[in-house]
Amino acid sequence: MKNVRALYPDAPKGSIRVATVRYYTSLYESHMKKKKNQFKNHLSRQRKYERRKRKLSARKSILNKTSHLDERERKKAMTVMRLDFMSSEHSDDEENTLIVSKLPWRSEEVDSLFEALDEKHSRSLSRKSRRMALTRYEANDPSKRAVPDRFPTFAVKKDHYKDRPFKFIKNKK
Q: Which domain of life does this protein belong to (predicted)?
């Protein structure tokens, strides 16, 4: 601790302690996952999660930059800019391809919004970035991920939530 304190004299004591504990906890968890042969599964889950996070970030960025939507439509679109509305993508056996598992409960309105944002994002990339982007194929089977507990009514197909006790987020008009 004294060595760290010498390097960062202005850092609060608590934050150094928390960071140190987190570091050693991460080392231990990594060691245990390798020991129990769970490390590959963990890395695979993390890659999937990070891909969904990057996709969400790109869509939010394009949504904020677009001039085609008025403020009301932009706010409505932002209600579905959440990780639980992003389709899962997993690596195929081939190196440069991803299999996209569509969410069967997501409405056509949200699907078309996401497609438009993805297309706009793709056009905003440099030629080299587009060339290096992984090829995506739609999976034969849809995702088995459940409908989120809270969602805007326009975002989910009606046949996927009728007769089920969900909390709706009211659409503001």
A: Eukaryota
Q: Which residues contact 1 (CB under 8 A, 6 or more apart)?
A: 16, 17, 20
Residue type, 124: S
Model pLDDT for residues 9-31, shown as the tens digit of each residue: 888 878 888 988 999 999 998 88
Global confidence as pTM:
0.71
Contact 16, 8 (CB under 8 A): yes
**In the prediction, which pLDDT does 170 show?**
54
Enumerate residue ranges in the chain where pLDDT < 70: 1, 92-94, 161-173
Give the residue from 27, 86, 79, 96 showing the smallest Cα distance to 58: 86
CB within 8 A of 168, min separation 6: which ones? 150, 151, 152, 153
> Which residue shows structure tokens 């993390």?
46
Sheet holding 135-138, edge to edge: 88-91, 97-101, 135-138
Token pair listed for 44? 């695979």
Q: Using CB atoms within 10 Å of the CB of residue 39, give its burial: 0 to 12 exposed, 13 to 18 middle, 19+ buried.
A: middle
Inter-axis angle of helices 39-65 and 108-124, nearest 10: 90
